Amino acid sequence: MASTTCIPSTFTPVLQNLTTRNSIAMVGLLSYAPKSLRPVSYAKSFGFSSLSTARKPPRKLFQFQVRSVSTPAEAVAGFEEMVSGTQRKYYMLGGKGGVGKTSCAASLAVKFANNGHPTLVVSTDPAHSLSDSFAQDLAGGTLVPVDGPDAPLFALEINPEKAREEFKNVNQKNGGTGVKDFMDGMGLGMLAEQLGELKLGELLDTPPPGLDEAIAISKVIQFLESPEYSMFTRIVFDTAPTGHTLRLLSLPDFLDASIGKILKLRQKIASATSAIKSVFGSGETESGASDKLERLRERMIKVRELFRDTDSTEFVIVTIPTVMAVSESSRLHASLKKESVPVKRLVVNQILLPSASDCKFCSIKRKDQMRALDMIRSDTELSDLTLIQAPLVDMEIRGVPALRFLGDIIWK
Ligand SMILES: Nc1ncnc2c1ncn2[C@@H]1O[C@H](COP(=O)(O)OP(=O)(O)OP(=O)(O)O)[C@@H](O)[C@H]1O
C-alpha cells in the first residue's frame, strides 16, 4: 500500500514538466511508494496504461499515460460549469460522517487552484481534518498557504471554540450581567428580566450542535469582508456532518431574531438612560457596543443569504452507496430544499470497481452497492441530482498529489 504525502519541492520542477495531470499525481504517489511496491501493476490497477520506462534520477519516478482511468458510468460532474467565470463561487460539501467530505472538498479545491482560481478551502467542522487530508499543518485559525497546486490555494481551519468565545464576549458586553446590573441601577429591572428571558448566555454556555458551525461560517464572512481575502474566486467549505448542517440552517434565523430582540431592548434602554443621563448629566454612550452587535447580526443575515444564493452558492451532498447513507442523504436534500439551499450534485464516493480477480466478498459488496445506487436513482429527493460516482481507491487519499489524482477522477 502506498503511503502518500506532499511532494518535496525538489520534485516539483520534474513533476511540472510532465504533461498529463493524472500522471503527475501517479508519479507523486509512486515517489513515496514503499520499495516493495510493483509500480507497473499498481498503476494498472488504476487504469493507467502505456507505461514508459523508469527514469532516473530520482529513483522510482515513472511516467504514465492515462488512456482511461476507469470510473463508473454517469460520472460527469459538470466541472466546466463549476470552474467557469471569475466571479466568486462558494461550494459547501456536506453529508454523513466519514463518507469522504474532506477528501472531496480538498480535491475540489486543488482542482480549482490548478485551473487558475485563487482558492480558499475552509473547514468549519469542529473536528478538523484538512491538515490530515493535505498532509500539511494548516491549523491556527488563519490563512495558511497550501504547498503544491499551480494557483494560490489557502486553507483556513476555523476554531469554533475560539469563535464562540469571541461571540460570547460581544454578547456579554452587550446583554450580559454588566448591562443587567447597569439597568438595575437605573431602575430598569423589568427590561433586565426581559433580556434574561432571551437566554442567549445560556445558549452559548451549552451550545446546540450546529451553533459552532453558524458562528464559524459567520467568522468566515467576517474574514471575507477584509481586503486580503478579495483575491479568492472559489471558496470550498468542508462542513460538519449532516446533523450539524441541518441545525445550522435554522440557526441564523434564530440568532438573527435573538440579536434583533437584544438590539431593540438596547434601543429602549438607550433612550431611557439618555433621558436619565440628561437629567443627571453623566455617563458614557454605549453606541460602540451596539455597533458591534449590529455587525454580528448583519453577518448572520449574510450567512443566511449566502446559503440561499443560487448564483454563487451550491451545496454538494457527499454520500457512499449504503442504504443508511443514502437514506440520510435523502433527508438532507429534503431539508436543504425546504430551506431553499441550492443543491445540484450528489457525489457517491467509495464505489467498488469491478475487477478481473473478483473475490466473493467484493462481488457481494458490489451487489449491495448497486442496490444502493438503484435506490438513489428511484429516490424522489435524490433522483433529480447530477450523480457523480467516485471509485474506492486502494490507498489513503493524503497529500496534494493524491488529492489531484482523486479530483481528476471525481470533478470532470
Ligand atoms: N474514494 C476514496 N477511496 C479511498 N479512500 C477514501 C476515498 N474517499 C475517502 N477516503 C478515505 O476515507 C477516510 C475518511 O475520509 P474523509 O476524512 O474525507 O471523510 P469525512 O466525511 O470528511 O469524515 P468526517 O465526517 O469524519 O469529517 C479517509 O481516510 C480518506 O482517505
TrEMBL record:
Keywords: ATP-binding, Hydrolase, Nucleotide-binding, Transit peptide. GO terms for molecular function: ATP binding; ATP hydrolysis activity. InterPro entries: ArsA/GET3_ATPase-like, ATPase_ArsA/GET3, P-loop_NTPase. Residues 89-410 form the ArsA/GET3 Anion-transporting ATPase-like domain. It catalyses: ATP + H2O = ADP + phosphate + H(+). One of its GO terms (biological process) is tail-anchored membrane protein insertion into ER membrane. NCBIfam families: GET3_arsA_TRC40. Belongs to the arsA ATPase family. PANTHER family: ARSENICAL PUMP-DRIVING ATPASE ARSENITE-TRANSLOCATING ATPASE, ATPASE GET3B. This is ArsA/GET3 Anion-transporting ATPase-like domain-containing protein.
